[in-house]
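hi! just following up on the protien thing from before. the input was this:
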Amino acid sequence: MTVRIRLLAGFAAVTALMLLPGLFAAERLAELRDLAVEGRSRHAGAVLAVGRLQTGLAELDRDERSHVATGDPGLRASVEDEISRMRHELDSLRVSPYAKPAAEVDPMVDSIADVAATIHGFMARDRVAEATDAFGRLEPLLGESQRRVRALAGAIDRIAQADFRRAESISAAARQSTLAGVLFFVLVAIVLGAWTTYALVRPLGRLAEATDAVAHGRLEDPPDLPYHRKDEIGTLSKSFRAMTRRLAELDRMKAEFVGVASHELKTPINVINGYTELIEEETQGELTEHQIQILDGILGQTRAMSRLVSRLMDISRLEAGTYRMEFDLVHVEDVVTGLLRSFDVLARAKRVALQVQIHDSAPETAVLDIDIIRDEVLGNLVSNALTHTPEGGWVEVEVWGEEDDVVFQVTDSGPGIPEEHRPYIFDKYYQVERSRAVGTGLGLAIAREMVDAHGGRIWLEPRAEGRGAAFRVALPTANVPGGSATVAAGARIHGPSESR
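and the predicted 3d structure came back as:
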């Protein structure tokens, strides 16, 4: 299943789950609407019919009295019309649920009709006395009819109350069911959405981590990427694996080329350097000053090329995993003294004060590769500091102890490193001011790897721009004397540039 189909299916499922409570609520509301419409029309008609029955009984009583008293034939017709209308109203009530209480009124209307017919017969023959006696039998029937009509009205009211309670019950049940359904389906939708999100975000996050690792120089294809998936993420994972393997192969070929080229370049450089020195020795006193300057220039350039080739060979050995270090127990003071001895002449020539300060907290001894730490690490820092410190400035080397570490700090009074360049000073070949760059940008990259191989750290201390630079190196003092270490193949080659 592709990611697109998975997402569409998830959205469709969530939409369907959210629609179900709405559909249920709509069905319940429709039932309530039907009940309300039916009750309104049915109960209202029944109430009106009862009202007309009560009115008809009252009018019948009045008209019959007047008929007996006056003998007006028109009143006889009014009584018969009233009886006919009452029968019609009862016919309208002979439907469920009013049929039973309405049936209690039917006999009374029939009895009233019979007595009224008797009264009318007597009145038609002018037998007023018999008609009056018959009217006496009519009055109790009218009273009983009124009582039964009131009972019918009460029954209608009870039926209406039952329908109202039923509507309330439906409403409450619909409300509870809808709320429970909404909560349940929201929970299901959340679980479904979380599952879909997890199924997409987790592999993408793992790919992001692997990509970040490649960006930091670890050219490995992690075995836990979702290569088995049949969707776009699986295709992306396979493409990432192919890219990583290709990059690793290119990196290996690059390191191999650098190593071979550097090795092959050392011989002709040494030959040029040797012939140049031989010319100087054999022609002393015979060369003009201009020729001597040319030979000095050749020697300077060959030495610079030799240093560059050595750096490239170091890089090649670091990336190939063949750079070995030997750890010995050395005196910390010897490291600093050797460093001062190496750069004192250069500092005097540049008229820069080179200062050394060993604090009381500094350990007396440490286990490290003295040649690498003194020459490749601290020597590179001091060389950089002297290069970028103007005449009349100063460079200071400080040493102190922190817990199980010995800490070296090289500080100068130069222009410092601009804020925008500081995040990148540990990148290989990076040079802060390329237009005035001196070197290759590899020296401190190598130093960073050497410090890492010692289990230490090297970093740039934060300082205000224009107030010099301070690089700090912290090395553990507890390495094994006489031991050795090899920098792992494929190590990250980052570090402060040689030129800033």
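Residues 434-439, 488-500 have pLDDT under 50 and may be disordered.
The first strand starts at residue 324 and ends at 326.
cheers
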